[in-house]
Design brief:
By secondary structure, this protein is α/β, with parallel strands linked by helices. It folds into 2 domains: 116 residues, Enolase-like, domain 1 (2-Layer Sandwich); 230 residues, Alpha-Beta Barrel (TIM Barrel), CATH 3.20.20. It is 38% helix and 19% strand. Strands 6, 7, 8, 9, 10, 11, 12 and 14 form an 8-stranded mixed β-sheet that branches. α9 links the parallel β10 and β11. α1 packs across α3, α6 runs parallel beside α7 and α7 packs parallel to α8. The two termini are 36 Å apart. The chain binds magnesium ion.
Amino acid sequence: MPVTIAAVETIQLSIPLDTWAPPPMFAGKPRTHVEAIYVKVTCSDGTVGWGESFGSSGGIVVAAFDKWVRQLAVGKDPTDQNLMPGIERLLHGLGRAGPVMHALSGLDIALWDIRGKLEGVSVSKLLGGAKRKRVETYASLLQYAGNVEHVKRNTERALKLGYKHIKLHERTAEAVAASREVAGPSIPIMVDTNCGWTPEQAEKPVAAMKPSNPFWVEEPIWPPEDFESLAKLRKATGVPLAMGENAVSPSDFRKMIAAGATDFVQPSIVKIGGITQLFRIATESEKAGIPCVPHAFFFGPGYLATLHCIACKERDVPLERLFADVAFVPYTKTVPDVNGAVEVPDRPGLGADPEEDLMAKFRV
Ligand SMILES: [Mg+2]
């Protein structure tokens, strides 16, 4: 009997977060919780695959599954390579980005997990084989709104835990200098400004960070798809730039690279279309000489999926790790982040399932 998809379940989580500082603002609200959407796909033979969709889309992703996505997946062959492209094409009129693509991203990841489990091989193996057994993680600090004491204290905390790369979510040269002062000259410090400035405003604050030698400045310009202005800024300041978590398709990455807008691309696996699209973008950008360092501000199946993609590329890049106390972090036993690095699991599929008993406590 061929294996088919029997059920597609969405699990919406809201997990308390302690950032060791006042909560940062996200989408106009204080961020006190990590929002997550896990996608559980059960097959007719009992095989279960796990995926993850962009958590901040919350119930809208759940609705996209309920209204459109589930009925197109149930009853189908989970290993059919034409399944996802077919669904994507059928739903294209609902928008090529946003909640529907976020839902498809989660489904795609779960199908890769299932394929690996059915074949008894890891997702890395399906992607052509891991190039390394261990991937370093970078501590992605939350936003402390320019408070240098919080920046210093949490930079120090990350270094003590063994992280060898730091990312800040700050917009001032003073905050970057404070982190540099604590970290010393050799630790790479990335600075995420979350589209902080208009093209006219950006040059001055980005140039002001230069003495602290930022490894990259991320998304300095609003809107993030203004690749022409980003290219100008990159040239004018000589500061390396990174972007891509708000891009919506592989063609966006081709455009930003062609425009000379960026030094690093950062597709987000839970938004861009899952492993299939992320790996395609990583392969194309690597060929163009631009390293792919994916956005991964999440902990679930999307995190493991990103780990496998990174492990299979020639360029050794670090994996993002949200740096805060989170009440539930999956895989702490199966794929632990120790001393700023994780081992790439060699078990079938993604290599670990999220702990359902713990997860249950944080279901919305
Ligand atoms: Mg970012």
